[in-house]
Each structure stands twice: as C-alpha cells, then as structure tokens.
Amino acid sequence: MNRFLEKSSEVARSSCNNPDDTTQIERISVRITPRPTKHNNHMNSPSNIPVRISPRRIHYGRGISLGQNGCNLVSIKISKNFLPSTVKVPKLMLTNVRSLAPKMDELTYFMLHNHVDLAFITETWLRESIPDSIIHIPGYTVFRRDRIRDNHGGVCIYIQVDQLRKFKQISHINCCDDHEILWLHICPNRLPRGYSSIIVGVIYHPPSDNDALIHDHLLSSLTKIESEFLNCGIILAGDFNRLNINFLLKHFRLKQLVKVPTRNNATLDLLLTNLHEYYCPPLASPPFGLSDHNTIVVTPKIKDSNAIKKKTVKKRVRRASHKSELGRYLSSINWVSILAEYNCETMWNIFHDVVLTGLDLLMPTTEIKISVADAPWMTYRLKTLIKKRQKAFYTYGVNSAEFKYYRNLVNSERKSCRGKYYEANVHNLEKVGPKKWWREVKRLCNFKTKEGFSNLTNVAEFSNLSLEEQASKINTIFLDSLNEYILQFPLPKLPLEESPVFPNVSEIMVHKALSKLKINSAAGPDDIPNWCLKEYSLILALPVSLMLNASYKEQRLPTLWKKADVIPLPKTKIVQQPKKDLRPISLTSCISKIAEEFLVNTYVKPAVLKVIDPHQYGVIPKSSTTMALISMLHHWFHETDGNGSVIRTILFDY
User: Which of 236, 430, 450, 477 could share a disulfide with 272, CB 3.0–4.6 Å?
Assistant: First the structure.
C-alpha cells in the first residue's frame, strides 16, 4: 500500500512538471483507509495523506494505469466553480439618490457599514456651488460630473481609497460632453487572473434623450476602452431608463447583473460587466430618503471579511476631581528651589518631567474606539429604526405599509436628531463663540475636511511603502529644499556690552500669555497640552518665567523647543508630486512660541512698524484684508473718475 502511494505521488509530480500538459492540477487532502488484511489488522487509525488529483489517466509503465485498481481509489468530486481565495473584486453599490446632499448621513452610514468599495450614484442634483467637502465620506474619494444645462441630473462615483489605491479619471474616452457619463481607470491591489485593470463608468440616461445618440456614444467609448486598456475588466452602472442594451451585451461580451426591480416593478438601474462570474446575485435595499429607486448592492463571491472600521483615540481622563488633584500636586511643588542654579536646558527637563509625571499618574491616557460611520447626532434609536426599515423592506416589499411607516419614521427621526443636536450644542455658540458655531454648522451640513494622508497612496513611489517609510520619504522631501540653510557649525553667541540688559519677563506677563492659549490646539513634541498650561496658568507662570529669563540670558534654547512635529497637508485633491502638492505644517512646543512672542512684541514689532510701508495691511495690528480692498478701490475710483483712464493690475504671490 505505501509503495502504491509513493508511486502514485511520483507519477503525479512528473505529470505536473511536464510543460506540455495544460491540464489544471489541484492539490487537496484526502483521507484514505487501506483495506485490512491478515497482515495489518492491528494497523493505526487512518490519517490525512496529500494526494494530487488530475482528470488525466496517469500511466506509469508497462501498460499499467492508475485507474485499473479501483479498490485503492476514492471518488472525489471537484468543484468546477473553484475560485482562489486571493481573488478580490470591488464590492459595488448602485442607487438613484434624487438629490445627494440632504441624504449624506444615511448614505455614509450605509456605505461604511456595508464596506462598499465602489458606489455609483445617479441624479445627484449637484451644482458647481456645492463643494466636494459637502458630500465627503471618510475613507472615500469622490469623482463627480454635474449637469450644467438645467436642473437635476448629475452622476458621481465614490472610491474606497484603502482598497482601490490607484485610480484616475479618463476624460478622453468620451467622444463629446453631451451625455452624463463618467469613466475611471482603477488598478486594485489584487485582480482575477487575466485582468490588468478595471474601467468603471456611471451613466444617467434621461427618458427625454435620444437613444440613437447614446448608443453611438457608448459604442465609441467602449471600443476605445478595449483598444487602449488591454485585458481590462469593465463595469458600467447607472440609470438607463429602458434603454435597449442588447447591442452592448453582445458586442462587448458583457452581462447585466441586476434582475430585481429597482423602481416599482421596472428594472431601470442596471449594472453591465464582464466580471460577472466573480459576483453574487445583486440584492435590493431600501431607497435613500424619499427616492423611488431601490439601492442595489453587488457582493463578490470571495472577499476578505472586514470589521467595521473604528478609530482609536487616546484621551486623558479630565474629570473635575482629577483636575483638582493635579492642581494640588502642581501647587505643592517648590519651583524656585528645584529650578535654582540650573541652566535653561536642565530647568526645562525638570519642568517637563514634573508636569508629565503628574498628568500620567492623575490623568492617565485611555484608548477610546470611535466608529467612523457615526455622526455626532446619530442615536441608538435612529440606528434601530434604520434596521427595522431594512427588515420591513426585505420582508414586505417597497410598496408595503410597514416599509413606508418605518421609512417616514427614519426621515423624521433623522431631522429631529439634527435639530436636538443643534439646540443643545450649537445654538448657544452663535453669540459666545462664532468660530465654534461655524465649525458645528459645517458638521451639520456635512462640510467635512479631507483626509489628506490617504491621498498619498495614489503616488507611484509611495505605493509599496509602509506608513513609517512614507513618513521618512516625506521628511526627506521637505528637507531637500533646506539643505543650503543647514548650519555646519553652531552660531557663535553675540558679543555683549559691558553691562548688557537682557529681556526680562515677569510672572504676571507669563500668566496673561498662558491664559490666552487655545485649549483645542494640538500639543507639540513636548506632549504638554495647552489646556493644562491654561488651566493652571497661575501655578505654572512662575517656573515658565524662570525658564524664559534663563534662556534669554544664556542666548540659547532648550533642545526640545527647536524640534517640531511636521504634518503634511495636501494642496490638491489628489497628490501626484509630493514636493509640489504637500504643505508642511509644523507643531512646536507651546512655551517656545510664548518665548518668541515676548521678543517679537518687545523688539521686532516696534522696529518694523517704524519703517514699514503705510499701504501695508498684512501682519499689521488692527488691520484686515477688508481695509486693503477699500484702500485699493478708493485709489482706483479716484484716478479713473471722469477722465476715461484704465487701471492695469498685476497680482504677485510670494
């Protein structure tokens, strides 16, 4: 029996190594139990033996075939629909949203909790006056094509940047700009074998448009795609409105996946692709808001399981009792005795260690997980109603009274949650803090900031680098332009007079400076938060004044004051050239900023104001851009009043 298995394995290996054999060989594990005989009645329990299985009949000499002895063979069924576990195609979503901006909360919740990679949205009803930040979804990049000639219409595509890192818009595919079609070229990390990339497109074909023109347009575009992007996958989705697509399916070997009604009993939202073998049948979900089009979700047959993305935030416990304990701890320290007779470097190290020790012991940092999908006004009741609406849709249908009941409840509850959040957290800020009020209003309007660092994944030189390597690469790029300014030797100290007068700051001056700090500003490399310096400004004013005066007298700064945390912020929507498209933002120690502010206000500002141009409005106290515009217009109108003169203006950016 063992010789038989060894011989079978040798034959299987020889057949697998044969280059002329194109038959697919699969390797599986089979449990084989030899028949008991009088020589092996005491044999051990059966074990798993790896076997190569091939549909070919394997001959291993002298006319003997492996298939002749059926007693030692086991019949095994091989699945014809075998797909390797590494195959990954994007998860798709298609919907006719009928006005996108008011439904961003629900759309964001749905896409993030269903792990959608590509979202095709029609009838966005967007205009040029609506920026991308209004329709931004965390972790996604949006490409849009708005209708210009009249109201309504418009299409857009959301791309999950973590899964689909390389993408770009291909505008030259369209033969004209008369149709609402948007094409993108995507290169995912993994694709089915034989496909080089994926071309995705979204289309909205209004019922009033000419069918013959859109036929010719699609035929021309898809022909260009096949000739320019060889062996590419094609996904074309959108609202076709009863357009005859049979010619597309036959000519380009595509398949229409959506078989469920999308609007009443009609199937108007379609999804055409040549990757149909890798997708499960589409599922219909409830419409967003009061739209009458169902949402279609198409899931790949094989996809890695992903948990809901959550962001981990480190936060200190800042209860009132803990603040009182920290205040008693800091006030109990005799700062004069522990900082006396030391230079500024040592004084700073002692101060830094004392403050951080008290923070770590009395206000330790804790990690809090926050779901990126939840808006601040999202409540448990609203989530529950959304789940009940989904269940009613799948159980009773879109036209049922149960679904309409929960749909209306979701809409009213969503508006109520936003209203309550505004009354509780935003309304009172309008007069107290206009900046905070405006920030919260922008959050309510989905005016969200972009996540700039994720855009770096679209840069070719960053695609295969880890986050640490990307940070090092960015740091090198930023330092290249500063190489000529790097000092080879430390600067010598300035010569002093016989009786020099050094800047001297009092404890009261430091207290006023600390009490004006913004508590929400980020800390620098020293990790001492601004709220701590402001909260205990009366206590910390003494040690900070001692350090500042020592620094002025020694003509030097502590080492940590000269360091900074640099954050790269993108200037453009998609970063292509890091050196050109990234802006370095430096966070330095807050106390070093205070030291600089005292010197500027005492010496630099008075000297500059004496020699500065009277028409200079930037960086001038009690001045603004409004005053600059008024002055500019005044001079223009004065010089052109009644004389027919013309003003020529040159704008410089430096």
Answer: 236
176 and 162 fall within a common domain: yes
6/138 same-domain check: no
Asked whether residue 235 is assigned to any structural domain, the reply reads yes
Cα separation, 281 vs 284, whole angstroms: 10
Nearest by Cα to 15 from 66, 63, 49, 50 = 66
Q: Is residue 358 included in any domain, yes or no?
A: no
R_g (Cα) of the chain, nearest Å: 35
For residues 113 and 35, membership in a common domain is answered with no
- Give dist(CA 268, CA 206) in Å, integer: 11
Question: Are residues 207 and 132 located together in one domain of the fold?
Answer: yes
Q: Which of 402-406, 409-413, 421-425 has the lowest mean pLDDT?
A: 421-425
Label each residue of 213-268 as H, E or C. HHHHHHHHHHHHHHHHCCCCEEEEEEECCCCCCHHHHHHCCCEECCCCCCECCECC
Percent of the chain with pLDDT strictly greater than 70: 81
The token pair at 102 is 């008011």
In a domain, 472, yes or no: yes
Question: Which of 283, 298, 313 corresponds to the end of one domain?
Answer: 298
The tokens of 100 are what?
Answer: 């996108």
Q: Are strands 582-588 and 198-204 parallel, antiparallel or unpaired?
A: unpaired
Integer CA distances (angstroms), 464 to 166, 459, 574, in order? 12, 10, 18
CB contact set of 523 (below 8 Å; sequence gap of 6+): 529, 530, 587, 590
What token pair was written down for 353? Answer: 């260690």
600: which DSSP letter? Answer: I
The whole-chain average pLDDT of the chain stands at 80
Would 175 be classed as within a structural domain?
yes
CATH of the domain at 132: 3.60.10.10
Enter the tokens of residue 329: 């701890």
Three-point CA angle 199, 204, 207, nearest 5°: 145
What CA–CA distance (Å, rounded) separates 466 from 447?
30
Q: How confident is the model at residue 38 (pLDDT cuts 50, 70, 90)?
A: very low
In angstroms, rounded to a whole number, what is the distance separating the alpha carbons of residues 260 and 296?
Answer: 9
Instruction: Give residue 456's pLDDT.
Output: 55
Domain range enclosing 638 = 612-654
Considering the domain architecture, whether residues 98 and 212 belong to the same structural domain is answered as: yes
Indicate whether 478 pLDDT > 60: yes
Residue 485 backbone phi and psi in degrees, to 5? -100, -5
Instruction: Classify 334 as helix, strand or coil.
Output: coil
Q: Count Cα atoms within 13 angstroms, Cβ side, for 310.
A: 9
Q: What is the pLDDT of residue 184?
A: 93
Bridge partners (DSSP) listed for residue 570? 582
pTM score above 0.70: no
